[in-house]
Design brief:
Blueprint: E1 2-6, E2 9-13, H1 27-37, H2 44-60, H3 66-73, H4 77-83, H5 88-95
Antiparallel strand pairs: 1-2
């Protein structure tokens, strides 16, 4: 595993930049992901997606499928891609501190 240092915190990440442990998520992690994913500013809609992803993962041990994510948040897939240009699986799950999804998110 590689390590990333950002804002006084050190994170272990895999080869794709996903955090090593769901429990190591923190605001500094969000800020680091924002910079690597090219997100200008984290807004309330970003936070809604992060909360839904974290809650779902915490209850089910996996990331939700994109249609579930869209249904729960009320965001159309196109809008999710506007918020996270690399997509819900890469950008949103990474920011939420989830492991890299293996299926279709």
């Amino acid at each position: 595993m590689e390590t990333v240092e950002y804002m006084g915190k050190t994170f272990s990440v895999d080869e794709d930049g996903f955090i090593d442990d769901f429990n190591n998520y923190c605001p500094e992690w969000e800020q680091w992901v924002k910079t690597v994913e090219g997100i200008e500013e984290i807004n309330d809609e970003h936070r809604v997606l992060v909360k839904v992803l974290r809650d779902y993962y915490d209850k089910n041990g996996i990331a939700p499928m994109v249609r579930i994510l869209s249904k729960v948040t009320g965001f159309k897939l196109k809008h999710i891609y506007e918020l996270y240009p690399s997509g819900p699986g890469k950008g949103a799950c990474k920011m939420a501190g989830l492991p890299k999804p293996t299926g279709c998110v």
